[in-house]
Amino acid sequence: MSWRSEMGRVYAFAKRNLLMAARNVFFVFELAFWPTVGVLSIGLMTRFLDLGPEMTAFLLVGTMALSTVQVCQLDVSYALLFDVWSKSVKHQFLAPVEIRHMALGSWLVGIGRGLTVFGLQALLSWWAFDFDFFEPGVLALGAFLLGCFLTSAVVGLLVCALVLLFGTRAEVSAWATVNLVMVFCGIYYPVSILPEPVSTLAGAFPLTYVLDAFRSHYGFAPEFSHPLLMGFILSALYIGLAHWALAAAVTRCRRTGLLLKLSE
Amino acid sequence: MKDASPVPAIAMRGLTKRFPARQRDPRAGHAAAAAEVVAVDHLTLDVASGERLGLLGPNGAGKTTTLLMLSTLLAPSDGTALVEGFDVRRDPQAVRRRIGALLAGDRAVYRRLTGRENLLYFADLYGLPRAEAAARAAALLDLVGLGERADDLVSRYSSGMRLRLALARTVLHNPSVLLLDEPTLGLDPDISVRMRAQIAGLRRERGTTILLTTHYMREAEELCDEIAFIKNGEIPARGTADALKRQIRIGDVIALRLDPASGDGLAELPGVLRCVFQDGRVECTVDSAEKRLAQILSWLHEQGVVVRDVDVHEPDLEEVFVELAK
Ligand SMILES: Nc1ncnc2c1ncn2[C@@H]1O[C@H](COP(=O)(O)OP(=O)(O)O)[C@@H](O)[C@H]1O
Ligand SMILES: [Mg+2]
Question: What pTM did the predictor assign?
Answer without folding.
Answer: 0.83
